Amino acid sequence: MSERGAPGSGGRILVVDDDPTVAEVVTGYLERAGFSVEHAADGLDALRRAGERWPDLVVLDLMLPGLDGLEACRRLRAVGPVPVIMLTARGDEEERITGLEVGADDYVTKPFSPRELVLRVESVLRRGRRAAPAVPRGVLRAGDLAVDPATRRASRAGVELALTLREFDLLAYFVQYPGTAHSREDLMRRVWGWDFGDLSTVTVHVRRLRAKIEDDPARPSLIQTVWGVGYRFEPERTEETTA
């Protein structure tokens, strides 16, 4: 890809889209926002470029020739943690949920505002790079769960959990406020940092998190549904002696 001005200082973004017009527009907006951008035209090219130089974030079209966006996302996440924002040409809810379930951190439906996409990219990167000031220092514990905001690592019963960026933030927030009922709107504001967005994003991430921390995700005991409100985190009680 030819240089288009000085490299950005905001991070390296890999844009994966087979539509040259969309790729050019997205690249232009991201570069003007201070990002260094590389473009891949299909899923295999994206994996090759990511292998040569790991990106800070991937903007990934769902409908790609050859290796589609879903499989490309699966393979990227199998190599290492990287935030992924998916682009989808259709407004089908099941398609969006599938994208989130394979590890995407967010999605944007075409046609979309390039400015909105830039805001989503900045939001995802900001959440990944900063330690939320409201989170206490040290490891947060709830039952056999341990969450370390400094290293962004979480474990259950001593076994490290493979969490996406958003799953970690969601778990850290729940552990910080046990026994409190949170609406999906509140979780979107507090965890995602958005005042707008599709609330099914929260629903899918709660479901994914349950699959990783619950003994029986179909009958969750840690992240409980509060009907008509949202969710409440109820940590398991451990046999501990207090001084």
Task: Explain the overall architecture.
The protein has 8 helices and 12 strands. Strand 8 (153-156) and strand 9 (159-160) form a beta hairpin. The strands form 3 sheets. Strands 2-1-3-4-5 form a 5-stranded parallel beta sheet, sandwiched between helices. The chain has 2 domains: 12-129, Response regulator (Rossmann fold, 3-Layer(aba) Sandwich); 140-233, Orthogonal Bundle (Arc Repressor Mutant, subunit A). The radius of gyration is 19 Å and the shape is globular. The protein has 243 residues and is an alpha/beta fold. Helix 1 crosses helix 5, helix 6 (165-176) crosses helix 7 and helix 6 (165-176) packs across helix 8 (200-213). The protein has helices at residues 20-32, 43-52, 69-79, 93-101, 114-129, 165-176, 184-192, 200-213, and strands at residues 12-16, 36-40, 57-61, 84-88, 106-109, 140-142, 145-148, 153-156, 159-160, 181-183, 223-226, 230-233. Residues 137-235 bind DNA. The modification 4-aspartylphosphate is found at residue 61. Residues 137-235 form the OmpR/PhoB-type domain. Keywords: DNA-binding, Phosphoprotein, Transcription, Transcription regulation. Residues 12-125 form the Response regulatory domain.
